[in-house]
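Weekly structure sync, notes
Attendees: PL (lead), two postdocs, one rotation student
Agenda item 3: pending single-chain targets
PL asked that the sequence for the first pending target be pasted directly into the notes so everyone works from the same version. It is reproduced below exactly as submitted, 426 residues in total.
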Amino acid sequence: AEGIVAVESHDIVNFNFRSVDWPIDNTPSNWSIAGVEDEDEDIINQIEITITVPEESEGSEGSNGVPGNGEDDNAFELALEGDGAIRTFDWSSHQRAQEELEEEARPDGVGRVQDADNPEPLEFMLVEVEFDKDPVIVGLGENRTSETEAFPATDPPTYPHRLIATIVPKDAEDMVTFESSDETRITVSEEEDSRSEEGNTTEVIVKVEGISMTPEDSPDGDADVRALIDNAEVATTKAVVIKPTSRAHEVGPLEIANTATLIKNETETEIQTYYEVIVTITIFDQFGNQLDAIYNGTNVVEEKFVPIQGGGFVTDWVPITFPDNELIDGEKRDQVSDELRMTLSWPLPSFEIQNFEAEEEVQSLQGANNTRAYLNQIGVKPAVQVDEAKMLLRVDGHEVNDPEITRRVEHFNRNHPPDPFVVTDE
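Predicted structure, written out during the meeting:
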């Protein structure tokens, strides 16, 4: 029964035992209590109890217990017998009933337990608290707590990082409170009106909020969510606060689309070429793991560029919104594109329109198979154009610039293939 705390069910307020010492050769076979050591005995305030509970309370009898009443599997009785010593802060009835012999005098507050001292067995209730996650993972700030809704959204809403504590039996729920072991790392609170009962159990929603990042050398967490009864620790679970810290960029293949449209009563032709490359940006936390879904959302990832040469880059922080504005499980897609169009003063015949849209050479365009190549042929565009800038990234407000990335966009005004539009992130 490790992790289970025993309290006296009929009088929790006055049940004030601090420790019990029992001779090894005369320990009751179905229970034992060990005191908490402290230099100052006056502040000893908890006990560790190990109990072997009968498989069935009703009709069962431990080697030193009495039959259970069958109404609550967590309630049973134990008789204190033998020569053990109970240490309390009060001069209890056990000590008052004890015959004090001068040659066997004991310090104030320590008494010997005899059968006559404890004619009635003590009634105990086993209170068990269990957390459904170990560890619980949260991000930084009020928007990345254990109560953050799933993204993409579900109907009804779901909470994949929610921490639930289950208390057994439900009659003990008012005894249980929750706290953080380190409020500089996490804060812990109970969601209002979150307690729900089912059978003999009570479930509690415990909200965990990250205050500071868990150190890199503590991947399993260095702070606890604690369940307490009368300041005694009943159960714990670790909390890990993750933060986006690094990134990796993977540049995808070039996609090209040509269109040619007759205009002005089919006396002219508008040609257009669209160039697109998708860069997949993967975000990692301080442990080198792909960022947890706790940071999923829209407009979470922002970019900003510091120009090196050329132009076309945004120099203020803006969300990455193309091809979409979503960060999902640490991945963000970033669209790098260009579009060129021009109007020809003559109508292209239908077969040349088909050739152009199929990226085949068009004779009346001086053999060009995309708009860039034609603009170079007629001297409007140079053979090569380079735009380059240092790319800065922010994820949920946290700058993520490890490693440093320089984006280079090269425009080769030539036929395709090879690629006339080349993107590198290095």
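Discussion points:
- Residues 1-38, 40-73, 76-103, 105-122 have pLDDT under 50 and may be disordered.
- The radius of gyration is 36 Å.
Action: rotation student to compare against the earlier draft before next sync.
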